[in-house]
Amino acid sequence: MTREILGIFVASMGLLFSFMGILIIYKYKGFYIKAATTSLIDSIGFIFIVIGIMIYNGANFISLKLFLLLIFSMMLNPLSNHYIVKCAYKSGYKDNKDISR
Fold first, then answer.
1. Lesser CB count within 10 Å: N end or C end of the chain?
2. How far apart (Å, rounded) are the C-alpha atoms in residues 18 and 43?
3. Which domain, by its residues, includes 85?
């Protein structure tokens, strides 16, 4: 019973972080600041959601699959964000210098 409650709590914390990432998209104007902050917050949100589901399920084969998905995502999410921002910079995208409204 406590395992399920802890799993739901951790997953809801991940949803809260993801929701904060959505709010950051609307708060800041600049592309580069949006890309950096939302990448970090969305990664943390995804990590908490997957760990919450793993705690909720307990130690079984599904948790192992979720752990492998988590490791794979932790490697690729920062890498993909880096290449998106790098391509925008190399293409000559000029960002607005004012970062807040």
1. N
2. 8
3. 2-90
